[in-house]
Amino acid sequence: MRVAIAGAGAVGRSIAGELLENGHEVLLIDKAPTAISVERVPQAEWLLADACEITSLDEAALQRCNVVIAATGDDKVNLVVSLLAKTEYGVPRVVARVNNPKNEWLFNESWGVDVAVSTPRLMSALVEEAVSVGDLVRLLRFSHGDANLVELTLPPESAVAGTSVGDVEWPQDTSLVTIIRGSRVLTPGPEETLEAGDELLFVAAQAREEQLEDLLSVRREDATG
């Protein structure tokens, strides 16, 4: 898979390193000469250019990319890069970094963004996840279809604790993606039993989040009336 990353700062280089380790082809783009540190990520391609300029993106052959990641520290730049990648080059997957949570509402399909990653929101979500059991925590927002990646740690009093995944009547437009149990990552097959303390990761429509939280957090005595 070919991935172009706009922004060769610490965030961009870190993403590039991870992708290269997983066998992907990576191009790092930055307009600041001081950001071009080939020795830090020698396996990547490097391009000294302004990712907001069509001529630069032509040089980067963006049309050959499977994914574009707008990872600069400037939200305006990330929006422009996302829009150009999607509308001018038809890149299938565009991921954008949100630096200021106040701008998060802009990072949607209208600007070509498929996945918006807000570092401040993610950090606060992880803090919430660490201290809350039974509360639904939103980790990531997907622009297409108004869906989110959400997490909930199953409380002992949950009505579904001890129930097989296949026996739970999940809300519409929700999908259980992964069960994290201690150090194990489990595929949620229909026979897998849900246990108190499991971290459950879902992709869910925003309109279904409250219903999902109610299903997972409800006490047994409440569920039976």
Description of the structure:
The protein contains six helices and eleven strands. Helix content is 25%, strand content 27%. The chain has helices at residues 10-21, 54-59, 75-87, 119-131, 209-217, 220-223, and strands at residues 2-6, 25-30, 45-48, 67-70, 93-98, 115-118, 137-142, 147-153, 174-181, 184-186, 199-205. It is an alpha/beta fold and 225 residues long. The chain starts with a strand and ends with a helix. InterPro entries: K_uptake_TrkA, NAD(P)-bd_dom_sf, RCK_C, RCK_C_sf, RCK_N, Trk_Ktr_HKT_K-transport. Residues 1-117 form the RCK N-terminal domain. Residues 137-218 form the RCK C-terminal domain.
Unreliable stretches, pLDDT < 50, 5 or more residues?
Answer: 220-225
Which structural class should the secondary elements be placed in?
A: alpha/beta
Query: What strand order characterises the main sheet?
Result: 3-2-1-4-5-6-7-8-11-9-10
Strand content: 25-35%
Q: Supply the number of helical segments.
A: 6
Q: State the end-to-end distance.
A: 52 Å
Q: Summarize the biggest pleated sheet.
A: 11 strands, mixed
Q: What is the residue-mean pLDDT, rounded to a whole number?
A: 88
Helix content: 25-40%
Give me the secondary-structure topology.
Elements: E1 2-6, H1 10-21, E2 25-30, E3 45-48, H2 54-59, E4 67-70, H3 75-87, E5 93-98, E6 115-118, H4 119-131, E7 137-142, E8 147-153, E9 174-181, E10 184-186, E11 199-205, H5 209-217, H6 220-223
Parallel strand pairs: 1-2, 1-4, 2-3, 4-5, 5-6
Antiparallel strand pairs: 6-7, 7-8, 8-11, 9-10, 9-11
Organism: Streptomyces lavendulocolor
Domain RCK C-terminal: 137-218
Protein name: Trk system potassium uptake protein TrkA
